[in-house]
Design a protein that fits this description.
By secondary structure, the protein is an all-alpha fold. The chain has helices spanning 3-20, 23-41, 58-88, 91-95, 102-132, 140-164, 168-186, 197-203, 207-219, 226-246. The protein has one domain. 76% of the residues lie in helices and 0% in strands.
């Protein structure tokens, strides 16, 4: 293993340890989405198929919504606050004087968040499958693509927040303000399938609305719509480029 990879691995492990020292972050990132599925799946009417939902059950709809929720919490609330706090406290500036460049810390934080999302998402899928007979994604390749594209889009937005927020508290506030409307359009409070058509169309052009739609389509065995994929790619390009241009290390 090269020296660069060893340094990157150490940074990632260090970030993991810091993450595990924050019980609230661990709970909401790893446990809360699964608990949400257990609570919703325990409602008898949510386990009954509905003609209005194309023969699906409400709990079937909420599994991909919970996966989108995981990405939203990590990308909009955790990552921006951590990176903005590091910059505010001079951590990134001090790293610039060491072999471990600041970009490595940013990469380690993103890798940690993605791995956390994968673990938490897998728990949601498995609990849905074995506790409530929710089918696993019928188009696994499409689901993986939808998951990664949704993650890339929402983390690009999170990095943009970290780039423009002057402090960690400001980053957390901005991320939280975006979190709630984003999850509304992803169907957290009301599944997208029962929303008025106009709200569905608006949601199709939000990162988490497009992401949830792509995840749902892959879960039911279909290739995600080109509209959803195009919207996600557009968010990656626009906000990824803006974050790279505006991000300051000190």
């Amino acid at each position: 293993m090269s020296r660069t990879m060893r340094l990157f691995t150490k940074l990632t492990v260090s970030e993991l340890r810091l993450f595990l020292r924050e019980p609230a972050q661990v709970f909401f990132a790893l446990a809360f989405p699964s608990i949400l599925i257990v609570i919703l799946g325990s409602i008898p009417t949510f386990r009954e198929s509905s003609a209005d939902l194309g023969g699906l059950r409400v709990i079937d709809l909420y599994v991909p919504i919970a996966v989108a929720l995981i990405l939203a919490m990590l990308a909009l609330q955790v990552t921006p606050q951590v990176l903005a706090t590091y910059r505010e406290r001079g951590v990134l500036r001090r790293l610039a004087t060491t072999p471990a460049r600041p970009i490595a810390l940013l990469g380690a934080q993103l890798v940690l968040s993605l791995l956390t999302a994968i673990v938490s998402g897998a728990l949601v899928l498995l609990i849905g499958r074995f506790a409530f007979d929710v089918r696993l994604p019928q188009a696994l390749g499409s689901f993986v693509i939808a998951f990664l594209l949704c993650a890339a889009a929402v983390f690009s937005l999170g990095l943009f927040i970290a780039a423009v927020a002057p402090t960690g508290k400001a980053a957390n506030s901005i991320g939280t303000l975006l979190f709630f409307p984003s999850m509304f359009f992803a169907g957290l409070w009301t599944p997208r399938e029962v929303m008025p058509r106009i709200l569905q169309r608006i949601g199709d052009f939000t990162p988490l609305g497009a992401g949830e739609r792509a995840l749902h389509e892959a879960t039911t065995g279909h290739w995600p719509s080109l509209v959803s994929l195009a919207v996600l790619v557009a968010y990656v390009l626009v906000f990824g480029a803006a974050a790279a241009r505006l991000f300051k290390w000190q």
